[in-house]
Predict the 3D structure of the following.
Amino acid sequence: MEIKDILKKKFIFFDGAMGTMLQKKGLKAGEIPEIYNILHPEIIRDIHKKYIEAGVDILTTNTFGANELKLKDTGYSGEEVISKAVHIAKEAKGDRKGKYVALDIGPIGQLLEPSGTLKFERAYEIFKKQVKAGVEAGCDLILIETISDLYEAKAAVVAAKENCNLPVFCTMTFGEDGRTFTGTDPLTMVMVLQGLGVDALGVNCSLGPKEIIPIVEKIIEYSSVPVMVQPNAGLPRVEEGETIYDIKPEEFAQYIKNMAEKGGSIFGGCCGTNDEFIKQLIIKLKELKPLGIKQKSITAACSASKTVILGQGVKVIGERINPTGKKKFKEALRNNNIDYILTEGINQQELGADMLDVNVGLPEIDEEVVMKEVIKEIQSIINLPLQIDSASAKVIETAARIYNGKPIINSVNGKQKVMEEIFPIVKKYGACVVGLTLDESGIPAKAEDRVKIAEKIIKTAKEYGIGKEDILIDCLVLTVSAQQREVMETIKAVRIVKEKFGVKTLLGVSNVSFGLPNRALLNKTFLAMALSEGLDAPIVNPNNQDVMDTINAFKVLANEDKEAKDYVKTYSDVNVKKEVSQKSSNKSLKEIIVRGIKEEAVAKTKELLNIKDSMEIVDEYLISALDIVGKKYEKGEIFLPQLIQSAETVQRAFEIIKDKIFKENKETISKGKIILATVKGDIHDIGKNIVKVILQNYGFEIIDLGKDVSAEDIVQTAKQENIKLVGLSALMTTTVKSMEETIKALRQNDVECEVFVGGAVLNQEYADMINADYYAKDAQEAVRIARKVFQG
Ligand code: B1M
C-alpha cells in the first residue's frame, strides 16, 4: 500500500530522537552526527533497529544536517552521507512489510534573506541536492523538519516537489508565543505549505508535548491534509552542563493521545525521546482510530506572518503600486527607486489596506527583474499579503516562486490560452487567483453572460486541481460615462456569482467614474452598492478618504464592526485623521527608521545634520526609533525580519553621522588603546559602534573585536596588545552572564586592565555584581571613563 493511502486509514508512527540517542552512544559536543553514517554505521543501524522493535512505521535517516554547507569541512559530500544513511535505514528495516524510510532534511543552518544573507534560489539548490541523493539511494518519502523560517520551508518543499514524486511531509518549530522564529503563525504555515502541495504538515521539536497542544489545535483547525506532531520530551533544562528532559514516556504518550483525539494522525518524538517513548505512544493509541481529515474551505492570502481570510468582512486591496496613470510612479520604476515604491506600500498599510496589489509593468523596463526586486523588498518590511499583478505569465511565475507566503495572482480570464498558462502556476505555488469575466469575445454586456464565464473559469480551475476557495471572481467594472447600462450588470453579476458558486468576489472600483466630474462621489456610491451585494475585496486607493469612509461605514451597518468599535476609534477624533495624512507626506527620521526605508533615512540624516548636532541625532532619532521598534517587537506587532530592516536603516544613517564626526574633529595623537567587544552570544553591535566612533573622535585608539566575541579572544588580545582598558557591551539579559565570564577570565589570566561595561540591560548595580570597574550608560560616559583611566 502507498504511504498516501495508509495516511487515510491509520495512525502513522515515526521514530523519536536521533541526536540525543547518539549523545548517549558517545557523540561529543561539536561532532557532526551525520558523519556517524560513515564512521560508525553500526551505531546508527542499532538505533534504527530499536525504533523498528518499538513498532514505528517510518524510520528517519540520520541526515538532518547533511547539506553541503554543514558538511563543508568534513571531507565528505552530502550525497555520500545521504546515500550511506538511506542504506543503513533500509538495512535496519530489512524486508519487513509496511515499513518505510524517510529522508530527513533539517534547516540549512544559515538564515535566508532578509533575516540573513542566503538567497532563496541558493537554498533551493542545496535542498535539491539532498532530495536527489535521497531519491537515488531509495528513500520512500521526504521529511522536511525543524524549520523555523517559512521561506526556508518553501525552498525545501519546492525543491522536493520539483525533483521527486515521493510524498513530502513538512514540520516547523514554534516558540512559546505560538509563532516561529521569523514570526509565522500556525494558520499561515498551514495555508502556505498546504498550497505548495505537502502530503502532511505539522510541528516538531519546539516545546514539550503539553505546551505544543494549543499550536497543534490551531493546525488541525485549518489543515486539510494530515497533521504530524513530534514534540520534545518536555522543555529542556541544563543541569551541570547536561541537557535534561523531564517528561517520562507514559506521560508523553498521554499527551499524544490527547492530540490524536483532536485529529492529529502522524506521531513521533523529537529531542529527549527514545524507543521507549515511541513504544508507549503506540500502545496508547491502539485504543483509538484516527478522526480522519475534514476538508476546510478557507479563502486566504498570506504574507509570512499574516493571513487575511476573505469572506470574513470587507478586505481592502490597495491599488497604488501600479504605474497606470501615475507619472511619478513610472519615473520611480525607470530609476529603480525602490524606496518610492516601498513608501507607497507603507502608506497604504497605514491607511488601512489589508493586502497590496503589485504591478510594475512598463514597456521600457525589465518587468521580471523589477517585480522580483520589488516583491523581495516589500516582503522584508511590510507584512501585508500581496497580489501579484502582471500580464506576463513569466513575471507571475517568477514572483510567485520567490514570494514568501500565499499570494493572489491577478489574473486569469475566460480565454482558454490564458487559463492554460496561468492555472499551472497557481496550482504549483498554492496561490489564489483572480478570474476576470471576459473571454475571446470581450466583456459581455449582460450579467448572465459574465456569470457563464465565471462558471467556465471555476470549472477549468478544478481540472487543474484548484478549488473554488482559491478563486476570486472579478465581474469587471465598466465606465458609467461610456457604458451606463452595463454598470448595474456588474452589480448584478456580483450577486449571482456569489449565490450560485459561493466564490469570493473582487472589483477594481475607480474605473466606474472615468470622464465625469466629482469622481469620488460616483466611486463611493458604486462601492456601497457593490458591497451590499456581497463584494468581498474592493481594489481601491486607501488614500482616498471618501472610499475608506464608505468602507468603514459599511462595516458598521453590515454588523461587521461590532459595537462600531473601529468606527468610533477612527472618527471620534478628527485630528487623528489629519495627523495620519500628514504622517504619510512628511515623515520624520524616527518614522523612517521604524518603517525601515534605508535610502530615505540617508537623505533625511543628511538634511538633519545641517540643523542638528551629530549626537543629538543619535539620541533623539536613532536610539529612540530603535526603542519603538524594540517595543513593537516585544508586543508581537513586528517580527524579526522587520527588526533587522530597522537596525540596518540605523546603521546606514549612522554611517553618514560618522563621516561628519570624523571630518570635523578627528584627533590624531593616540590617548590610549582600548578594546571594545560585544560579548559571546550577543550580536547587537549598534551601541558598541557608536561608542567606538565617539571614543575615536576623542583621540582614543580602538581595537574593535566585533560582536559575539569569546572571553578567550578578549583575554588573548588584551595580553598581546598590553591593553589597559577593555569595554564590553551586552544587550540581552542572557548575555550579561558572558560579560561576567569575560571579566572573570581577564582577572584569572592576570590581565592588568580595567573593564567598563555598557548596553541597554545594564545598570550600575549589575556592573558591580559582575565585578566591572565602571558602568557607562552611554558613549559620553565611556569617554569620561577613558579619560579617567588614561588621564587624558
Ligand atoms: Co534584538 N533584542 N534581538 N536585535 N534588539 C533587543 C535587545 C530586545 C530588548 C528587543 C525586545 O524584545 N524588546 C531583546 C532582548 C531581550 C532581553 O534579553 N532583555 C532582543 C532580542 C530578544 C533579540 C533576538 C534574540 C531576537 C531573535 O532572534 N528572536 C536576536 C538576538 C540575537 C543574538 O544576539 N544572539 C536579536 C537580533 C537583533 C537584530 C539583529 C535584528 C538587531 C541588532 C542589529 C545590530 O546590532 N547589528 C536587533 C535590535 C536592533 C534590537 C533593538 C530593537 C535595538 C538595540 C539597539 O541597537 N539600540 C533592541 C531593543 C532596544 O534596546 N530598544 C533589541 C540602539 C543602541 C544605540 O542602544 O545598544 O543600548 P544600546 O547602546 C547605547 C547604550 O546602551 C550604551 O551606549 C549606546 C549609545 O547610547 N552602550 C554602551 C551600549 N554598549 C555599550 C558599551 C559601552 C558603553 C556604553 O562600553 C563598552
Observations:
- The first helix runs from residue 3 to 9.
